[in-house]
Design goal:
Layout: H1 5-19, H2 26-52, H3 56-86, H4 93-122, H5 127-141
């Protein structure tokens, strides 16, 4: 029903969006770093939830936790994009740090996505799981 590859694409897209941060001052870059500070524990929490999910409801909750984190980061990037696009080409240290942190965290994101996808397929008939997964897919298309 859904393809796995687009889900991984959300963070590739986010990373590419962060590359726009190369043209930003400290304030937008600091805000991006704060958004990543929120993303990392939320993705880890989603991974823990999916590991412990004994039923479809808990799987949907774990997928929704992940979707919330991805939506939050995407919203932050969308909001900051106009500021980032107007700024000079010198990459502030905060933007470099944001890009490096997200790149370094990507393998962990991929591992959580794989777990979510595996459980999603196992409970593919459950409406809550389907709706949660659709949120994740929607994020990849924006």
């Amino acid at each position: 029903m859904f393809k796995f590859e687009p889900v991984r694409g959300v963070f590739v897209l986010v990373w590419l969006s962060l590359s726009v941060a190369e043209w930003s001052y400290a304030d937008p870059c600091t805000e991006l770093n704060r958004a990543i500070d929120v993303l990392i524990p939320a993705v880890r929490n989603s991974g823990k939830q999916i590991d412990q999910a004994p039923n479809a409801q808990k799987v949907a909750d774990a997928i929704n936790t992940y979707a919330d984190a991805a939506e939050s980061l995407a919203t932050t990037i969308q909001r900051l994009r106009p500021q980032l696009e107007k700024l000079p080409a010198d990459e502030p240290a905060a933007c470099q740090a944001a890009n490096r942190r997200l790149e370094a965290f990507q393998p962990e994101i991929d591992a959580v996505i794989e777990k979510l996808d595996y459980k999603r397929r196992r409970y593919s008939a459950d409406r809550g799981v389907i709706n949660a997964w659709r949120r994740v897919i929607k994020i990849t298309k924006e």
